[in-house]
Write a structure and sequence with these properties.
Elements: H1 20-37, H2 39-53, H3 84-109, H4 117-132, E1 144-146, H5 152-162, H6 167-170, H7 176-181, H8 209-226, E2 237-242, H9 249-252, H10 255-260, E3 266-272, H11 287-298, E4 301-305, H12 312-317, H13 322-329, H14 332-340, H15 343-349, H16 355-361, H17 366-370, H18 379-391, E5 397-402, H19 427-436, H20 443-447, H21 459-470, H22 490-498, E6 504-505, H23 507-519, E7 528-532, H24 543-548, E8 550-551, E9 571-572, E10 578-579, H25 584-595, H26 597-600, E11 606-612, H27 617-629, E12 635-639, H28 658-663, E13 668-671, H29 676-692, E14 698-702, E15 708-709, H30 718-723, E16 726-731, E17 738-742, H31 747-761, E18 765-769, H32 773-789, H33 799-803, E19 810-813, E20 832-835, H34 846-852, H35 857-870, H36 877-885
Helix pairs in contact: 1-2, 3-4, 3-5, 3-21, 4-5, 4-18, 8-25, 22-23, 22-29, 25-27, 31-35, 35-36
Region (Disordered): 1-22
Organism: Pigmentiphaga kullae
Cofactor: Mg(2+); thiamine diphosphate
Amino acid sequence: MYDESRHLARQDGPPADPDPMETAEWRDALLSMLETNGPERVRQILDMLTDTAANAAVGWRPPRNTPYVNTIAVQVQPPFPGDLAIEERLAALMRWNALAMVVRANLAHGELGGHIASYASAADLFEVGFNHFFRGGPAGQADLVFCQPHSAPGVYARAFLEGRLEEADLAHYRQEITARARGARGLSSYPHPWLMPDFWQFPTGSMGIGPINAIYQARFMRYLAHRGLLDTTGRKVWGIFGDGEMDEPESMSALTLAAREGLDNLVWVVNCNLQRLDGPVRGNGRIVDELESLFAGAGWNVIKLLWGSDWDGLFARDTGGALRRAFSQTVDGQLQTFAAKDGRFNRDHFFGQDPQLVRLAQGLTDEEIDRLRRGGHDLVKIHAAYHAAARSTGRPTVILAQTKKGYGMGEAGQGKMTTHQQKKLDRDALIAFRDRFSLPLSDEQAESLAFLHPGADSAEIRYLHARRGELGGPVPARSPQAAPVPVPALERYAGFALQAGGKEMSTTMAFVRLLSSLLKDKRLGPRVVPIVADEARTFGMAALFRQIGIYSSAGQRYEPEDIGSVLSYREALDGQILEEGISEAGAISSWTAAATSYAVHGTAMLPFYIYYSMFGFQRVGDLIWAAADQRARGFLLGATAGRTTLGGEGLQHQDGASLVTAAGVPNCRAYDPAFASEVAVIVDHGMRAMLERQQDVFYYLTLVNENVPQPSLPPEAHEGVIKGLYRHGAHGQGEPAVRLVGSGAILREAIAAGELLAADWDIASEAWSATSYAELARDAREVERWNRLHPDQPARRSHVEQCLAGGAPVVAASDYVRAWPSLIAPHCPARMTVLGTDGFGRSDTRSALRQFFEVDRFHIVLAALHALADAGACPRELCAQALARYPIRTDPRPSWEA
């Protein structure tokens, strides 16, 4: 006997009905109303009853989950508009070419990886979209499509049939370097716009990044429309994601925002193949039920796509509801087993569990039972779900499509625990796959993994091009062309910073003032997108509330408490600020949407996202890396930056490492400016690089909230600011004995140290501002490489070598970990001593913190004297005298390690 308890979910059944006759009368009355007045009237009555039942005395709420059947009933399915036979043949061709691409690469090289089973489960979900829904065309008109990363081979297979890729390209899947040497185009492992800039729109390889970015892209489309910058009517954001991916917090973190904003331009298709990499997603439960509850609770329109057309007749004959009961009680782990087994097993173990099910299956052969399709493998059912989703209004839609992982791979992988790792198939498995999808291949062609193309004049290829032509062009496709945006002259918006003349302000205040001026520029101003997660008032941005407003799709339906204030809170439909609440992941996703608008929408925008620096690269570094992959253009501002500038806050807020992390992102330009003038020069340079020269870079600047006198900046120093190092000044008489290099907040300590060296020790020094160790190291590496590869040419000198030439020791002090200044240590001509703020932060005053981390002026003086003594340039006794003279602790261990 089959043990039913092995696959039944534990459920407490409903309590016994005390009056079945009364219950039947209620049901019959409802059905009579449906027949007489239609579904709209039934919904009205049910809504009224729900409100009544929600009374505390009753305490009833409707269940979140609906029966485990398709949401789109068979009687309301729209007619399938395409040629079903041709589309099935096309899908089969793409399945084969995707499989051949991965298996070929691994047979030849053994270690390249790739995935077969994911696309095998999602192929039909993609194909219905490509043939009927995903609109192409130029940026600003096309839909946005986020592709499940493990299904990339299938997208390449379609591009091959479309003529966008050659057979040689497919043969170099995951061989990008080798392909270039052979004159072919290598295909990246997953969707990577950086590596395939005219093909992929969005990177999705890091699970959870695609879903949250899709939501904020859909919201940014509305933002552009409401601000009158772009007509986005009719465009959709489509995302095909995995059910296991929904466990990532980023996947779920913005669901309520999508519903709150009424983003009916957003459709997710969650491929519920019920398996993660190593086994079931919810082996002891049902992921479809869980996701339905989550999405419905968040306010989404949920469409369940579970069973194919083959099941329609069975459901129609199942008057007793046995099928519904069986499905409602079968957990995903058992559904996976059913997927992996043949028709005989399913007859015995699924249909065999109930006499009513046995009778339903009597007219089916074992082969027919084996071919009963789940909804995600039925083109007709998929089209019906997509059709409904595309026409849904007022809220986003998610389609929960049930599939089989490794669909069609049979014994080689369908539904098996190991299917995700399956990258090679033997001869019998390849021939079985060929037979399963009726592919026109001989045994020898199947075994040799020959790519299939039916010919440019075949009915299949003509149909393929006709469908894409009607939808506007190929998808995915990226068009990085956008009209340049002119940047106003630096003096027009930042003269106050360049000629500060000792005026006291923080670099945060200077940035906000600079931003306010940019917003007033008639051409650039409308393209500026200020973004904050929260703390706009902390950063001094409250004045912008009235000036440009905070974007809200609902406008402002209330009278703010501070309406009489000049800094009152103002939300507006055409507001310009994106204030995302306490969600760094949401804010960086908004920034990414704006920073890629030039390619996604053909409209260049300039986003400035300002945040606590500790909550940037450390907290959402993966999202920033994905933005880099997308060739984002914009500014990230790490405010209240550094380990010692945020007095009183302590360990969780004091940032000492973000610049090092930023330096590791290839197209990020990381700067640590000390003064308002440096901020202005860097922002101006960045805007011209991104908006006028259209370079695919973005900028990270640290900002501090410490009010200090701001010096003016001479024009001849501007180039050094951008390159990363310039001479700020000198102290003492004669040639400098030591060079003191400071960055950010610690530059002023280096300057003060120079004054102490001159006054107390009669030692001359130079003070240098290191605005970017990352840029200095980048330049030095390039020069070093050029010299290595051109031994017959005169050697070049890096900016570091030119600035710090000679033997004078260098002391570099930073408010960041020592690894930040150490980026230039291998390229510094003289001995270099590095002071930094390694360790955890502490709560105290700025001066106490700088003394604690040994980066204050006294420790810089001591480091300079020690370096000079080591070089034989001063008596070592001066070090001991300095220890006695200055407030320097001599604990046996560094205090930050205690």
